[in-house]
Amino acid sequence: MKIVNKNKYLAIIIAVVIIISSINVFTGKAKAAKGKMPIIKYQAHVQGIGWTTPSTDGKIAGTTGLKKRMEALSISIDTKGVMNARGTQISGGIKYCAHVQSIGWMAWKTINSNAPLLNANNYVGTTGISKRIEAVQIELTGELAQEYDILYSVHVQGIGWTSWSKNGKIAGTTQMQKRLEAIRIKLVPKNNEISASLTYKVHAQSIGWMTEKKVRVGEVSDSTITGTVKKGKRLEAIRMSLSCTGVEGHIKYSTHVQTKGWTDYVSDWTVSGTEGQSKRIEAIKINLDGEISAYYDIYYRVHVQKHGWLDWAKNGQEAGTTNGSLRMEAIQVVLVKKGGKAPGSTQKPYIKEKPRTWKDYPGELYIKINKEENCVTVYKGKKAIKAFICSTGAATPLGTHYLGKKWRWQELMGKVYGQYCSQIDGDVLFHSVPYNSIDIYDLSVYMYNQLGTQASHGCVRLTTKDAKWIYDNCPSGTRVVVYESPDPGPLGKPSAETLSYDHTWDPTDPAIQ
Q1: Residue 386: C-alpha distances to residues 363, 379, 383, 492, 494 (Å)
Q2: CA–CA distances in Å: residue 187 to residues 37, 150, 399, 480, 506
Q3: 18 falls in which pLDDT band (50, 70, 90)?
Q4: Which residue, of 286, 311, 471, 473, has the fewest CB within 10 Å?
């Protein structure tokens, strides 16, 4: 009896082992089979060319750089040997539609898997009537839609390659009359673990490269802000990088730089902006590039001179200001899952300033600094009312600025001191000729005798009397224009007395007179 029971138990154990082994083998086969990816195939009908050679899995169909419209598109999906989770042939197919010139959105085409390209007119768009495709939508169906994302990017007339769209989202334009010229399509398994993180750092005036900021998806806090606030310091350069898992991707960015305008896009930790040229960044555009753009949006906002924090820009929009010579002072960037909520208001991320002229403000005081002639002219509306001799420097920034903070005495570069200081841009000030100490009888005679020549580190040196006039009469916000011209200005260039080296006070100083 005991032997029978033992045999019975042994038989049960063997049966269980066989079942488990069968399950493992079956599952293993299913996983192995499922490891094979479906193949996406597509071809484009192009102006003057006709149907192109079929493309697969992210390769280009169509043309770029030839200004030829894409007129029709055919897509199929090959699932031979691709299994579902149950270990049977995966089901489903593909459907797609196109927005066509003067027609609008055409009917969806639904194609079963393994159908040949161009079978029974299974394309969208038109042939033979010279009409451009302007946008497309593409989706998977059935089990394919449960297992895979379909990604697609189009090359648009005058725009170039768009970010990747996903699972039925529109790619292209519908109200701009722009032709599609090429397309790329690929599949990504839904079980891919897709994530991204961002690193960026800025180069700030008189600080240099600041500490890197590392940001994960959805992270928005003061710790992700870099630059300075309320210190009057311009951002001069930025570099950024993106780390992705599950899909490929990059970050690209362009800056609007003083006297240069918009720079070319760069990516992957390349510097955008300038170093050692004392030029401010005024605005920025940031975008995600590659497959990651189908899964995340990038938001960014900037802190700008005079305006403070502007609202959030998104996916390549302009953030900051142009046309007004205003410096960017700080920036904050965040990644958000595609279609997720913006981190804040998106109403006003960018301002195109209106250039200010005497016609707009007929009674306003403003100041012009002729860097070439080392002459300052003060205007009231259209009329020039005062002229001062000065000393500028190679680093005195050209363009339009607005007076900021003021200091009665201020320590300057080189352990010297200036009287009646008015901030032009960051560390660049109007101030008196330097003193060796905070003492009106300790003037640097050598520097005083340099008035009328380019001799400063970037500040604008004046006689004490002239520095005091600006300090007293030109409030914060007064416009200052720095330019270069051989013509000193409508009032000419005043002269300054040459001092002997034992004359250690400024003869124009009202405190002495």
Answers
A1: 15, 7, 9, 10, 10
A2: 8, 5, 50, 56, 76
A3: very low
A4: 473
